[in-house]
Amino acid sequence: MAINSIPTTRLSSPFVTQQILSQMSTNQADLFRVQSQLSSGRRVVSPSDDAPAASRAMALQSLLERKSIIQESYATNQTYLNSSEAAIGSVATMLADARATAISMVGDNVSPSERSAAVASIDLAIQQLLDTSNQK
Description:
Elements: H1 13-40, H2 51-104, H3 112-133
Helix pairs in contact: 2-3
């Protein structure tokens, strides 16, 4: 805000009055702008107040939104990876158990009922592997 002096020599009274009213109007508009900034707590109330600052603020807001989306995507992917890791661990355990069962059935000292039980155990392991592979 600035107070402009109005020369009073060789000027008509209506002109001087108009200049003073114009200056008062400008000062009132500036005062209203400052009051709006104070009441809102924001230096830039509308983009026309400070175009470069408004542009930077919009760019930062866009960056924050993109980072939020990336963060949500990261959380979703982390959950997916944790589930996949658990499923792979389960598959590895089932395959190791099935392999151990198959190896224990090698030889002549295994009865047919034990082999039948081993086949049922391996069939169950295969079904569990299929169930695990179909998980989402």
